[in-house]
Amino acid sequence: MRPFEYARARDADDAVAQFRAGAMYLGGGTNLVDLMRLGVAEPDYLVDVSRLGGDRIEPSGDGLLIGAAVRNSDLAAHPVVRERYPMLVRAVLAGASGQVRNMATVGGNLLQRTRCPYFQDVSKPCNKRQPGSGCPAVAGDHRNLAILGHSAGLNAAAQCVATHPSDMAVALAALDAQVRVTGPDGSRVVLMPGLHRLPGDEPDRDTVLRPGDLITAVELPPPPPGRSTYRKVRERASFAFALVSLAAALDVAGDGTVRGCRLALGGVAHLPWRAARAERALTGAAATADEFTRAADAELAEAQPGWPPRRSPSMPRT
Amino acid sequence: MGDITVRVNGTQHSLDVDSRMSLLDLLRERLGLTGTKKGCDHGQCGACTVLIDGRRAVSCLALAVAHDGTDVTTVEGLAGDGELHPLQAAFIERDAFQCGYCTPGQLCSAAGMLGEAGPSAVTEDLADDPALTAAEIRERMSGNLCRCGAYVNIVAAIGDVAAAGGAGAPEDTGAAAGSGAAW
Predict the structure, then answer these.
(1) Is A205 a member of any domain?
(2) Which of A29, A316, B56, B180 is deepest in the core (most CB within 10 A)?
(3) How buried is B122 (Cβ within 10 angstroms: 0-12 exposed, 13-18 middle, 19+ buried)?
(4) pLDDT, tens only, B57-92
(5) How many domains does chain A have?
(6) Could you tell me the CATH number of the domain that includes residue A290?
(7) Least CB-CB distance to A33: which of B61, B118, B142?
């Protein structure tokens, strides 16, 4: 690990003031410390923002304000979150392990990096880690990487099929969460899923944040009507990243039609993927398995698993 | 470099540490507490699990310099007054290990887990603080790998302590272990 200086910030303004080129903010460290050990991240200055006092969950209008330093386990165990935002609780509990959730912060969860094996291996090219070096994942091990919105079709220097690994962010995207940011240019609010971006020709940029920007809180509007949950498919029963996941909220009228819905997919794109096509297809339709399938097909019509694109055989349905 | 003070198993230590040093390496290399094991060093195996301010955490991903002022309990601090922690007694009773390398992490993780409130990924009703069934224990302990595959007996041992109402904190060493419940 490269040597670095360490400082603990007093508050958010102090953290931003201490930020300089080559610096990074340190939250729980569960991803950053690992990336530093792997040589993927090489900050020369760490500004510790894990003890800024931003560790509270409090009411905000009809919604909820979650401090950026709230630990994932405390978010999932909070009685109000459990009662009003079951989708979010399910998403947080679907991620990582008990130990890691005890350490990981809400802000850090949003800013964790892809688990693409090539990104994490400094002996391999990677356009995200080293812009312009290429993307071995496009033709390599990408079974759990992006099928939507990726840049495999661009030139070799821009290709990227990385996925955003967070489960929590998928639920926040479906919940229209607002991310509060403080930075060198002042404070602003970023609406999920707009915090994260598609790779385009800058796959090294995961988010719209600028150097020195610090996430201070996440604000949840009132939960959508109806029922909600989070489902995750992975290669083992627990403590694994998603092959695909779904955050869903469904409001079904008395006559069995869908009055409204929120759908977001994880594990399929460079960002938590708000499934707007599926939402449109399902709204006003009957809440039946056939209509759910039609909505999923509408969303995945432009999916491109593998590159160069190939016509995939229709998926068997069981 | 940085000066930090940590309380480990009840003893205060003031040390000058390299900013790169993990809490795991501090425990093993600086304090000689080699009970805490280094497995993957990437937060994936749980062998290095300790309690930081009473909460279980993987010490390999904890920078020592960022844990100034914390209270750490390692496997060496679980037992009190020469008596085994109920989890340690239950692991012996249930033969919950083979090579033993993951055991300190399993013990510390279980000790932290028994004190954690709220649902898990396998809990049906999120309003519940559910009973620790075998399925709940497996999910909550998924951050601790055992390459020998002693999971069946590990789950049974933890289940015994949970059924006996044994809280995980090191102070609770008086609780009886081993109810003999079938797992």
Answers:
(1) yes
(2) B56
(3) middle
(4) 999 999 999 999 999 999 999 998 889 999 999 999
(5) 1
(6) 3.30.465.10
(7) B61
